[in-house]
Amino acid sequence: MAITVPATLAVVLALIVLAGQVPRRMGFSAGFGRSLKNGPDRRIALLETLSLDARRRLLLVRCNGHDLLLLIGGPQDLVIHPPSATTANGDES
């Protein structure tokens, strides 16, 4: 019994799609801002990203209610202190 080329192609494509869906359903994701823990209990979130050049990026991250600016991708990663003196809810820190 010979398996035809279109049937083999359909099986391979189905396996590729399945291999991509299983990790997502188990809670693993490649996207930023996604987490296994949803809602207000999350302690860390990626708010924005900005590409500066081919290697370096600025990340605005909220961690425990504080906004932090991170510079990544260069010879060393830098934490730039909060862009303002207030926390995410407006309180002075």
From TrEMBL:
Regions crossing the membrane: none
UniProt keyword list: Bacterial flagellum, Cell membrane, Cell projection, Cilium, Flagellum, Membrane, Transmembrane, Transmembrane helix
InterPro entries (UniProt xref): Flagellar_biosynth_FliO, FliO/MopB
Localization of this protein: Bacterial flagellum basal body; Cell membrane
The keyword Membrane belongs to this UniProt entry's keyword annotation: yes
Signal peptide: none
Transmembrane helix keyword on record: yes
PANTHER family noted in UniProt: FLAGELLAR PROTEIN FLIO
Family of the protein in this entry: Belongs to the FliO/MopB family.
Protein name: Flagellar biosynthetic protein FliO
